[in-house]
Amino acid sequence: MEAPPVTVMPITSGTINMMEYLLQGSVLDSALESLLHRLRGLCDNMEPETFTDHELVFLLKGQQGNPFILRARRSLSHPTAPWHLRYLGQPEVGDKSRHALVRNCVDVAASHSLPDFLNEMGFRMDHEFVTSGHIFRKGAMKVVVCNVSRVLVPGNTENTERMSLSHLVELSVLAPAGQDTVSEDMRSFAEQLKPLIHLEKIDPSKQRH
Amino acid sequence: MQQREEKQLEASVDSLISLVAHVKNALQNFIYKLENEYERLTWPSVLDNFGLLSGQLNTINKMLKNEKTPSFRSQVIIPLLLSQKPDDDLTVLTEQRVPVFSHEIVPDYLRTKPDPEVEEQEKQLSTEATRIGPDVAQKQIQALNKMCSNLLEKLNNPREDRDAESAASRLNKPFFNPGDTNALVAAVAFGKGLSKCRPPGPMAPGHPGQGPMMSGGPTLQQVTIGGGPGQQGGMGGPVAPQQQGQPGYNFTYAHHHHLSLFHWL
């Protein structure tokens, strides 16, 4: 038997299974400057990047229980840059001693027709928000300090209002599965930011209620 | 008498040479560290190096002030022979720093007085000092001593006093609000507190108007690389004209990854 023609063979993904390690905290606006100063000293020596992003979260409700969630993000400060589509899995319930939240993460770039494409596929936009803030990097670790604003009129990103008087601080690392030293490094970095902020592993499912 | 003086002179010159050699080694190590290991250098170790150098300079000062040391000011060094030819012995002796004992090195190495500008400045300072009078000078000295002792006291005092007052002030101003943390995390994770949008009814899939279909023509063709034909229907939405400027690259890359996503569904 001949091998089937190439176009019929299924395309297997060539991506490595990437996990996102995450620690979250927040800082009041009044203490934001001190936090930025400290991060500027601790992190790699580069001008901290500022960003303004608009994120839309799409849900696909299947017959079974949990809906499938995809997050589409576009930059409001670079309107021609491609969209960023991200899938985040359920947090791994591994050993409790692991200090960071670990979940599977798949990131792709997408064109500007992404929301329409997702709508055609059957996804529905569940909620959207606008974040803007700073990104710092230290080696593989990324620290994002941003404020979250809700979009008052769907689709209109000019009209936003701040959700709270605090900025969200996230420390994340994207690493292949199975590297446990990553969470140790993250924890020691988080120690250096105390008592200004407490970065900890917050389980999102516990926040639901 | 003279022999004793000569012996003293020789001994003190020898000890001076050895102390200066210590300083030179310390400087060499320090410069090496600064040039080659600056990424790993910490401020405390830099301070250690400076401390070492200052200690060695102190030793040299003490040795010079020692009563057994004859006054070097009364000694005179006169060069007996200057030549333009490189001297091998001298080169080896000075570790390649002075290859030729010539006319240009004499004013530098055999100098006994400071530069004219420096001498000017020193003269100005000493006239200034005599001008202000002993009382004013004494008051200034006292003020300086008082400030130094204040500073030393603050630095040496037990840390608990300082920590207590700074901890108290820190408690009054919390830097973060845990309630806010939870609210923000909930908002980002699943939209708690953000208005939920439910657009009315699903858009008819694969139903492009005639107009968008025409503009989407070239890009739809580029998408057929390796994909099943069924995917094209989903791309029927209006394609922004700017995409034609960046032809297939974004689409095919995204398309390939969308296919990998389908494994999840």
From TrEMBL, chain A:
**What Gene3D superfamilies would the database entry show?**
Hypothetical Protein Pfu-838710-001 (2.40.320.10)
Q: What is its main location?
A: nucleus
The subcellular location is: Nucleus
Q: Write down the InterPro entries for this protein, in alphabetical order.
A: Mediator_Med18
* Keyword DNA-binding found: no
Q: Keywords in UniProt for this one?
A: Activator, Nucleus, Transcription, Transcription regulation
Q: Which domain of life is it from?
A: Eukaryota
Q: Report the family membership.
A: Belongs to the Mediator complex subunit 18 family.
Description of how the protein assembles with itself and partners: Component of the Mediator complex.
* Protein role: Component of the Mediator complex, a coactivator involved in the regulated transcription of nearly all RNA polymerase II-dependent genes. Mediator functions as a bridge to convey information from gene-specific regulatory proteins to the basal RNA polymerase II transcription machinery. Mediator is recruited to promoters by direct interactions with regulatory proteins and serves as a scaffold for the assembly of a functional preinitiation complex with RNA polymerase II and the general transcription factors.
Q: Which named protein is this?
A: Mediator of RNA polymerase II transcription subunit 18
Q: In the record, what lineage is assigned to the organism producing the protein? A: Eukaryota, Metazoa, Chordata, Craniata, Vertebrata
Q: Which gene encodes it?
A: MED18
From TrEMBL, chain B:
Q: Which of UniProt's keywords are assigned here?
A: Activator, Nucleus, Transcription, Transcription regulation
Q: Which Pfam families match?
A: Med8
Which InterPro entries does this one have? Mediatior_Med8_fun/met
Subcellular location per UniProt equals:
Nucleus
What function does this protein fulfil?
A: Component of the Mediator complex, a coactivator involved in the regulated transcription of nearly all RNA polymerase II-dependent genes. Mediator functions as a bridge to convey information from gene-specific regulatory proteins to the basal RNA polymerase II transcription machinery. Mediator is recruited to promoters by direct interactions with regulatory proteins and serves as a scaffold for the assembly of a functional preinitiation complex with RNA polymerase II and the general transcription factors.
Family listed: Belongs to the Mediator complex subunit 8 family.
Question: Under what name is this protein listed?
Answer: Mediator of RNA polymerase II transcription subunit 8
Give the organism the record lists: Ameca splendens
> Upper taxonomic classification of the species?
Eukaryota, Metazoa, Chordata, Craniata, Vertebrata
